[in-house]
Automatic annotation (TrEMBL), chain A:
Keyword field contains Transferase: yes
A single cellular component GO annotation: glutamyl-tRNA(Gln) amidotransferase complex
Family of this protein: Belongs to the amidase family. GatA subfamily.
Biological process annotations from GO: translation
Keywords for the protein's UniProt record, in alphabetical order: ATP-binding, Ligase, Nucleotide-binding, Protein biosynthesis, Transferase
Protein name (Swiss-Prot/TrEMBL): Glutamyl-tRNA(Gln) amidotransferase subunit A
Organism for this UniProt entry: Roseococcus suduntuyensis
Automatic annotation (TrEMBL), chain B:
Catalysed reactions listed for this entry: L-aspartyl-tRNA(Asn) + L-glutamine + ATP + H2O = L-asparaginyl-tRNA(Asn) + L-glutamate + ADP + phosphate + 2 H(+); L-glutamyl-tRNA(Gln) + L-glutamine + ATP + H2O = L-glutaminyl-tRNA(Gln) + L-glutamate + ADP + phosphate + H(+)
Cited Gene3D superfamilies: 1.10.10.410, GatB domain, N-terminal subdomain
Positions of the Asn/Gln amidotransferase domain: 335-481
Entry keywords, A to Z: ATP-binding, Ligase, Nucleotide-binding, Protein biosynthesis, Transferase
GO BP: glutaminyl-tRNAGln biosynthesis via transamidation; translation
Protein's recorded name: Aspartyl/glutamyl-tRNA(Asn/Gln) amidotransferase subunit B
Higher taxonomy: Bacteria, Pseudomonadati, Pseudomonadota, Alphaproteobacteria, Acetobacterales
TrEMBL record, chain C:
Domain of life where this protein originates: Bacteria
EC number(s) stated in the UniProt entry for this protein: 6.3.5.-
Function recorded in the entry: Allows the formation of correctly charged Asn-tRNA(Asn) or Gln-tRNA(Gln) through the transamidation of misacylated Asp-tRNA(Asn) or Glu-tRNA(Gln) in organisms which lack either or both of asparaginyl-tRNA or glutaminyl-tRNA synthetases. The reaction takes place in the presence of glutamine and ATP through an activated phospho-Asp-tRNA(Asn) or phospho-Glu-tRNA(Gln).
Lineage: Bacteria, Pseudomonadati, Pseudomonadota, Alphaproteobacteria, Acetobacterales
Name of the top EC class for this enzyme: ligase
InterPro entries linked to this entry: Asp/Glu-ADT_sf_sub_c, GatC
Gene field: gatC
Keyword Metal-binding set for record: no
Name used for this protein in its record: Aspartyl/glutamyl-tRNA(Asn/Gln) amidotransferase subunit C
GO molecular function, one term: glutaminyl-tRNA synthase (glutamine-hydrolyzing) activity
Length: 492, 482, 97
């Protein structure tokens, strides 16, 4: 048998079923890998080894009794934005201090219900605000990949789910939960050579996930294969009466859709995504991906998303506005960090100045400003209207196509010491992904090739609302055609 | 006549608008399943939603929506089938989320009107601008510790209806009458208990003053006044303060003030100084609130009769406007009255309820919800009067016995033998005996001393232990005395 | 629209963020950079466009729950993370109203 940490999630389930390995052995293997590699990668903020082993033992007992559930015994990492009952939850921020939630997020509870074993809490950009995982108060995460011609240069894993993507790529978890507000699942998945899906807004409950921007946040999985994502999403998703924005729809068998093929599907190619100065390697990969799909019987259809180019500035009004309000609760009164002050206002200001990092403060400032008297119409209301137009563009596209394929990111992973000065340059990372958040649509990133430096590059598949099945079908076809087998330099 | 306050420069008119915060009657909070009961241990009725914990999300309570719609219908107001929740952002120790979920741009209820009756019998219509649903904040206690305030979040998230009036009131009396009427309507509807002592109704009082014929001048908002009497006092105190400012050549600045009930003055509220920019925006956690017209119609059809309609019906039944008013102030009183009056003479029932029954409530310090005599028993008593089993005097005697024993009047009548005597033979016998024993008085009466008639009535009734039918006693005496 | 230092301070005050003078300067430059970039939204013709509030890709309505007490009665859990717990209360510096 393969080394346990090399198994995909689907293979892991099979191995467990055939008793080729026990959940305890599997968990042990991942805990050892974490112990060895996490000091370097810093993917985990908190490792819950003892609890994981106990849960794995319970899982083995269930399996022995023939009561194994959908994910029984599968070791997962949980992004530290999901509240986990009894386990410290930080959101990558100092302001949550030693916050120990007395409740379990719906998504992680769903995974537990299905028998998953949690290895620990994964690093992220502070409050999920970032595209490089460098804004975490618990230190940057290192991408397990490196450039062939510059192997010592440490690269970012992307963000905000950088810990999730790095852990899965380096085999420190079989899969992980992640969240995506502007690209925070798809961009790190692409940077780390793995697969991730942001489902349709409302597919996964937001209850118990530390909120960044409530109208954009959506939880989803990252894992090494499209099929593994389909398996995980089926467990994570579902209607939750505790989230008023949760969709009351049945959860399809996503796994069955992965192998469906693309014959007869119309694949849209948005003209506006062919940005000036798009890296030739990215453009070539995109063309290659479309060629694979055509070869499999799909029809490639040029489309227009005329407002897509305004998606990023729209996002940088809407997301900070919501964040400025969502983060008001971190005030040092009921939980988290407190810095004492001479009066209440002083306490608030000191607590929040000390507790939030620079990027979070910057976004709170923008968000507060765009909502404030005199600026609301020019910024916030305007952005909401442009957002409506972006959604409308997609609605029109769905008259012509069944899915849209684009690059996942405008570049491969960059180095930790690059791109740090100018916030806007950093924001451009999400240029391809953010439209799906604004329109609430599902988007999947799948590795499709390597750049000249040997770094992974991903393609993105965007689908209709609540049509993740087609997204998985297209993603599965790309995955099969690409035959992506490269693995990172740092790996268990 | 217009109410004015006399200043050094002449009379000033007062302009008043009220924002009433009325606690919605519901078991659970607006956006969480925590209880709303008054007087619980601190922080014992708090969900993580109410405490603003990370990742917590609001889910709306259907009954609170229904209560807001019922209230809107009771205020003759427009019901908006599409409304939305917005966030009002500000920092305060008892505001755990750092924002209040409210309805700013699109309230559930639009314009309406309330008719109030003033002391001189004149009615006046006060416009309602809007009614919206929002969350209450927690409670800060400032007197528990020398250097700290203590926060209790039990109230945090309790549903409030904010009812905003037009600036249509012109005197403390009108403000008082409006609040009384609003409370009455909500108590009838069962949508707010109106209990101002427990904070279930508070008013923000907007006051400005002006000279006759002027447009509006700058107003000030006196926050959180918690009794009708204090609202009336606060209006006057704030109006006088503003008059003084204007007359001394100053300018009233728009601000939030507090009413100091002990000193009877308003003062500036420091903590609200910089909270003017609330940065309202649609709450992304809550999709729009959409109502079906058929659902609203159902609520409307099941609405109880409101005080105005009920009062009009009572007057049509023959009650005096005053009795109709008194009987409809509280819904329970009206219900009590109607039970008593059912199938009986409404006027007699009204007299008994507003007379002997109210007197008994007062004397015993009891409330209509805990009456000393049930409406059913009181009704039976009226039946005994109507069928002449009891005389008026006997009925009063039986009524007192009902209060004492809680027994039905028929039981009391039987056990104590209080049935009035209508047997003319027995009355004649009694009269004969009295006349025989008082031959001198009979002669005096017959000699023209008419006043003695009362003496004979009294003696006869006394001899019959009060049970003689008064009319028959009169008849027999008149006949026998000649 | 360009942000001056006074606006940066006013916004920081609204957001309850304590800034020292060097931070004001740095943020002023950064925010102006971001706002300049956001300015391109003004090019979009949005006449007659209904603003999109909320993230749902399709029209949705607010779901309602029944009026039942299903939560609360957990003061210990609510207070467990408090930086300053005073008996059954949260403690804060004294507030003057
Ligand atoms: Mg007010
Ligand atoms: Zn209010």
């Amino acid at each position: 048998m393969m080394r346990p940490t090399d198994l995909t999630l689907a293979e892991g389930l099979e191995a467990l079923d055939k008793r080729e390995i026990s959940a305890v052995e599997l968990t042990q293997a991942f805990l050892e890998a974490i112990e060895r590699l996490n000091p370097r990668l810093n993917a985990y903020i908190t490792v819950t080894g003892e609890k994981a082993l106990a849960d794995a033992a319970a899982s083995d007992a269930r399996r022995a009794k023939g009561e194994a559930r959908a994910l029984d015994g599968i070791p997962l990492g949980i992004k530290d934005l999901f509240c986990t009952e009894g386990t410290r939850t930080t959101a990558g921020s100092n302001i949550l201090g030693g916050f120990v939630p007395p409740y379990e997020s719906t998504v992680s509870a769903n995974l537990k219900r299905d028998g998953a074993v949690f290895l620990g809490k994964l690093n992220l950009d502070e409050f999920a605000m970032g595209s490089s995982n460098q804004t975490s108060a618990f230190g940057a995460v290192e991408n397990p990949w490196s450039r062939a011609n510059d192997p010592d240069r440490r690269l970012v894993p992307g963000g905000s789910s950088g810990g999730s993507a790095a852990a899965v790529a380096a085999r420190l978890a079989m899969g992980a939960t992640a969240t995506d507000t502007g690209g925070s699942i798809r961009q790190p998945a692409a940077f780390c050579g793995i697969t991730g899906i942001k489902p349709t807004y409302g597919r996964c409950s937001r209850w118990g996930i530390v909120a960044f921007a409530s109208s954009l946040d959506q939880a989803g999985p990252v894992a090494r294969t499209v099929e593994d994502n389909a398996i995980l999403l089926r467990s994570m998703a579902g209607h939750d009466p505790k989230d008023s924005t949760s969709a009351n729809l049945p959860v399809p068998d996503f796994r069955a859709a992965v192998g469906r093929g693309v014959k007869g599907l119309r694949i849209g190619v948005p003209a506006e995504y062919r940005l000036d100065g798009l890296a030739p390697e990215i453009a070539a990969l995109w063309d290659q991906g479309l060629e694979w799909l055509r070869a499999e019987g799909a029809e490639i259809v040029p489309i227009s998303l005329p407002h897509a180019k305004y998606a990023l500035p729209t996002y940088y009004v809407v997301a900070p506005a919501e964040a400025s309000s969502n983060l008001a609760r971190y005030d040092g009164v009921r939980f988290g960090l407190r810095e004492n002050g001479s009066d209440l206002k002083d306490l608030y200001e000191r607590t929040r100045a000390r507790g939030f990092g620079a990027e979070v403060r910057r976004r709170i400032m923008i968000g507060t400003y765009v909502l404030s008297a005199g600026y609301y119409d020019a910024y916030y209301l305007k952005a909401q209207k442009v957002r409506a137009l972006i959604r409308r563009d997609f609605e029109e596209a769905w008259g012509k196509v069944d899915a849209i394929v684009t690059p996942a990111t405008p570049s491969a992973a960059f180095a930790m010491d690059e791109k740090q000065d100018d916030p806007v340059t950093m924001y451009l990372n999400d240029v391809f992904t953010v439209t799906a958040n604004l329109a609430g649509l599902p988007g999947l990133a799948v590795p499709a090739g390597l750049d000249g430096q040997g770094l992974p590059l991903g393609l993105q598949v965007i689908g209709r609302a609540f049509d993740e099945e087609t997204v998985f079908a297209v993603g599965g076809a790309i995955e099969r055609a690409a035959g992506f087998t490269a693995s990172p330099q740092v790996m268990a | 006549m217009t109410y004015t306050i006399e200043g050094e420069t002449g009379p000033w008119e007062v302009v008043i608008g009220l924002e009433v915060h009325a606690q919605v009657t519901s078991h659970a909070k607006l956006f969480s399943g925590a209880a709303t009961a008054f007087g619980a241990e601190p922080n014992s009725q708090v969900s993580f939603v109410d405490a603003g914990f990370p990742g917590m999300l609001p889910v709306i309570n259907a009954e609170c929506i229904a209560q807001a719609v019922r209230t809107g219908l009771g205020l003759n107001a427009e019901i908006h089938l599409w409304s939305r929740f917005d966030r009002k952002n500000y920092f305060y120790a008892d505001l755990p989320q750092g924002y209040q979920i409210s309805q700013y741009a699109h309230p559930i209820v639009g314009t309406g009107a309330v008719e109030v009756t003033l002391a001189d019998g004149i009615t006046k219509t006060i416009g309602i601008t809007r009614l919206h649903l929002e969350q209450d904040a927690g409670k800060s206690l400032h007197d528990q510790h020398p250097s700290k305030s203590f926060i209790d979040l039990n109230r945090s998230g309790v549903a409030l209806m904010e009812i905003v009036s037009e600036p249509d009131m012109r005197s403390p009396e009108e403000a008082g009458a409006y609040l009384t009427k609003l409370r009455q309507i909500m108590r009838y509807l069962g949508t707010c208990d109106g209990n101002m002592d427990e904070g279930s109704m508070r008013a923000d009082v907007n006051v400005s003053v002006r000279k006759a014929g002027e447009g509006f001048r700058t107003r000030c908002e006196v926050k959180n006044v918690n009794s009708i009497r204090f609202v009336m006092q606060a209006v006057e105190a704030e109006a006088r303060r503003q008059i003084e400012v204007w007359e001394s050549g100053g300018e009233v600045t728009q601000e939030t003030r507090l009413f100091d009930t002990a000193r009877g003055v308003t003062r500036s509220m420091r903590s609200k100084e910089d909270a003017h920019d609330y940065r309202y925006f649609p709450d992304p956690d809550l999709p729009p609130l959409v109502l079906e017209q058929s659902w609203v119609d159902q609520l409307k059809a099941s609405l109880p009769e409101l005080p105005d309609q009920r009062r009009a019906r009572y007057v049509a039944m023959g009650l005096s406007p005053y009795d109709a008013h008194v009987l409809t102030i509280e819904r329970e009183t009206a219900t009590f009255f109607e039970t008593v009056a059912k199938g009986r003479d409404a006027k007699v029932a009204a007299n008994w309820v507003t007379g002997d029954f109210f007197a008994a409530l007062n004397r015993l310090k009891r409330d209509i919800s805990d009456p000393p005599v049930t409406a059913e028993h009181l009704g039976e008593l009226l039946d005994l009067l109507a069928d002449k089993t009891l005389s008026g005097a006997l009925a009063k005697q039986v009524f007192e016995a009902m209060i004492e024993t809680g027994q039905a009047p028929s039981v009391i009548v039987e056990e104590r033998g209080l049935r009035q005597v209508t047997d003319t033979g027995a009355i004649e016998a009694a009269v004969d005996a009295i006349m025989a024993a008082n031959a001198d008085k009979v002669a005096e009466y017959r000699g023209g001393k008419d006043k003695l008639f009362g003496f004979f009535v009294g003696q006869t009734m006394k001899a019959m232990a009060g049970k003689g039918n008064p009319a028959l006693v009169n008849d027999v005496l008149k006949q026998k005395l000649g | 629209m360009s942000l001056d230092a006074a606006t940066v301070r006013r916004v920081a005050n609204l957001a309850r963020l304590r800034l020292d003078e060097t931070e004001v300067e740095k943020l002023q430059a950064e925010l102006n950079g971001i706002l300049d970039w956001i300015e391109q939204l003004q090019q979009v013709d949005t006449d007659g466009v209904e603003p999109m509030a909320g993230g749902a890709p399709v029209e949705v309505k607010l779901p309602w729950r029944a009026d039942a007490v299903t939560d609360g009665a957990q003061a210990e859990k609510v207070l467990a993370n408090a930086p300053d717990r005073e008996g059954e209360y949260f403690g804060v510096p004294k507030v003057v109203e």
